[in-house]
Amino acid sequence: MKAALLDIAAATGGEKWVRMYDVLEKTMADATGIAPNLDFPTGPAYYLMGFDVEMFMPM
Q1: Which residues fall within 8 angstroms of residue 41, CB to CB, at 6 or more apart?
Q2: What is residue 29's predicted lDDT score, i.e. its pLDDT?
Q3: pTM for the whole structure
Q4: What is the Cα–Cα distance from 23 to 48, expressed in whole angstroms?
Q5: What is the extent of the structural domain holding 25?
Q6: What are phi and psi of 4, to 5 degrees?
Q7: Helix locations, the chain, DSSP H
Q8: Bigger pLDDT: 35 vs 7
């Protein structure tokens, strides 16, 4: 899913969201030793595709 996020960000000019994602991913891994799950990259991907935030959970 992260690869899809990177593709979508490149296509939509959403590189700032990828930079934010990378910082949050590293911070979580450093603090907990746990990598984010599949749901973590879907939020920014959905956002960059234009879905309303309220629709993230049902999808």
Answers
A1: 1, 2, 4, 5, 21
A2: 93
A3: 0.81
A4: 18
A5: 2-52
A6: -65, -40
A7: 2-12, 15-32, 39-49
A8: 7
Backbone angles phi, psi at 12, to 5 degrees: -110, 0
Closest C-alpha to 49, from 19, 11, 2, 1: 11
Q: Is residue 59 part of a domain?
A: no
**Number of independent structural domains in the chain:** 1
d(CA 40, CA 34): 12
pLDDT band at 49 (very low <50, low <70, confident <90, very high): very high
Q: Is the residue at 42 inside a domain?
A: yes
On whether residue 58 sits in a domain, the answer given is no
Reference 24, options 39, 10, 11, 4; nearest CA is: 39
Mean pLDDT throughout 42-59? 87
Residues 53 and 28: their CA atoms lie apart, in Å, by 22
